[in-house]
Amino acid sequence: DVLVNQIAAGEVVERPASVVKELVENALDAGASRIDIDLEEGGARLIRVRDDGGGIAAAELPVAVQRHATSKIASLEDLEAVATLGFRGEALPSIASVSRFRIASRRNGDDNGNALQVEGGRVGEVAPSAQPQGTTVEVRELFYNVPARRRFLRAERTELGHIEEWLRTLALARPDVEVRISHNGKPLRRYRGDSASETGARLVDALGEEFSRNVLRIDHAGAGLRLHGWIAQPSYNRASADQQYLFVNGRGVRDRNVAHAVRQAYSDVLFHGRHPAYVLFLELDPRAVDVNVHPAKHEVRFRDSRLVHDFVYRTLQEALSGTRA
Ligand code: ADP
Ligand code: MG
Q1: Residue range of the domain that includes 289
Q2: Model-level pTM?
Q3: Quick one: which of 3, 193, 264, 312 is 20 to 30 A from 145 by CA?
Q4: From the CA of 90, how far away is ligand 2's center (Å)?
């Protein structure tokens, strides 16, 4: 679908958070078990993502950053042109075309690492570089050569907020991966690696002690569906609209249908309509859900949304009923 692809492509380098997303997803694709993210000035000045994944061979470095005729992008002055780029296999070239970019990598078992610099799309030479196993990507001065986009960046706190929110969602989905974030040279967040993903340690790291003490554990399967995770106890009053995380087959999404089912379970059992806080994972047959409805908006479409709604509603209704003694 051309339109969907164009929308998705426009997102690749919309703001620092989109760069973080692309780089972190690459790290995960490379099998990383630990990812370190260093940011400066909300990511506008520096985004550095280091992983301990499989790495890239020296000969492959230029390939990774150069899937496009870079001259076209180096002279980019308007926003629309970015939106015409493709999406898959094009994140690094896109990012490297609008930043001072460096990628260094060392594969497991190689004696040394190699690095490659790209300045506004102009690709340099591969050179040996001290580098632990894995890959480090540095994106400096995002949009330095695209003034229209640079001006569009929001305040440091706003951009950092977008990055943190995306990483929080990712952290909830991937408790097995350790993630550390620093901002302006200071440690900001640490998500401890937690291979036993059901323990809730990651919940504490992502949403705090207080939230974690005030949740009900949910785990229920039936009719080919499974719903597990945590919902806030009725007594937990601090929930805000943004403490609502839904993952469908491991992918963070927004879905009105499921959100409605949760809200209705709360209000039917408890007779109030506050924002319920939750972190819920819905697993179902991949064929029963279309995740490509709108990649940019993280939406899904269920084949049988009534079934999903009723399953979520009944599961939570029962769990909450037990709290009403
Ligand atoms: P895509 O992820 O869609 O393939 P990208 O532009 O994001 O496209 O990355 C291009 C290629 O560079 C990837 O396919 C992968 O081979 C390589 N690559 C990028 N980042 C990493 C990383 N952190 N570790 C290993 N390989 C990477
Ligand atoms: Mg990628």
Answers
A1: 209-321
A2: 0.86
A3: 3
A4: 7
